Amino acid sequence: MPAATLGKLELAALLAVARLDDEAYGLAVRAHLAGVTGRDYSVGAVYTTLQRLEDKGLLRSHASEPLPVRGGRSRRHFSVTAAGARAFREAERTAAALWAGVGSFTKPRLA
Amino acid sequence: MPAATLGKLELAALLAVARLDDEAYGLAVRAHLAGVTGRDYSVGAVYTTLQRLEDKGLLRSHASEPLPVRGGRSRRHFSVTAAGARAFREAERTAAALWAGVGSFTKPRLA
DNA sequence: CTTATTTGTTCTACAGAATAGTACTTATGC
DNA sequence: GCATAAGTACTATTCTGTAGAACAAATAAG
Questions:
Q1: Residue B22 and residue B86: Cα distance in Å, rounded?
Q2: Closest nucleotide (CA of A45 to C1')?
């Protein structure tokens, strides 16, 4: 199976992990998503999505050592797998095709 | 309600209608989607989506006169409403923000 | 040391979107 | 009238989106 296509939040989360790189853990991803999409996803929404991506083999995770700061408990760090990178590029191609030609389409013809 | 965000197929269908303009009816949209996304959506998938968009007020439709060709029955033509155009632009902004900075990200760091 | 506070993650549920498949309708062509 | 083509509508099932509360672990406070 060609991994079917990613959902929108899934894709956004995948990109977030890729970008955050070493800092890619649950709450950080959530914060990043808030910045990028302009909306506030619930904690559950984010973790569920990350979990699904890992189940699909697009992400992998490992627990970090606790940090010596207040509330500094162990984090679950995510990273993109090879399959994840592929899915990512495919999504990129599709998105490009989708939006191609509509660049100057800021004023669609209304009925 | 801020119209919630559009699903991926919904967005693709909205764009298809906008582009096809006068030729935006069920099967044509379906064909366009196939070209753009590279995958074959079932007939049902397309109509269900278009219907949803109309229910949300992002599209409107009207029946055309039957064409004098074999099988040329009346088509249901769709067009983008003002609300649809707004949704469209908002999706465009979000997509831009999402992909911004990942342009040269064709080779994500793997774990 | 006992409690409060902070950061982080897991669990449980449900609504909505994606998607397929089949049936139904209306034209034309013989 | 009957076969065929082009379209659309209906029904059902799975997957994704999304929220909210519960749970865990670490340090700061008193």
A1: 20
A2: D18
Q: How far apart are CA B40 and CA B32, in angstroms?
A: 10
Cβ distance of A37 and B92 shorter than 8 Å: no
In sequence order, what are the beta bridge partners of A62? Answer: A77
Put simply, the answer to whether B107 touches A84 (Cβ < 8 Å) is: no
Contact A18 B109 (CB under 8 A): yes
Query: Under a CB-based contact definition with an 8 Å cutoff, are residues B34 and B40 in contact?
Result: yes
Identify whether the C-beta of residue A19 lies closer than 8 Å to the C-beta of residue B99: no
pLDDT of A1 above 60: no
One-letter amino acid of A58: L
- In angstroms, the CA B73 to CA B65 distance is 8
Q: What is the pLDDT of residues B34-58, one digit of tens each?
A: 999 989 999 999 999 999 999 999 9
Mind listing the domains of chain A with CATH numbers? 8-65+72-94 (1.10.10.10)
Q: Locate tokens 């196939």: which residue? A: B34
Strand D nucleotides where any atom sits below 7 Å of a protein CB: 4-12, 15-22, 24-28
Is the pTM above the cut of 0.90?
A: no
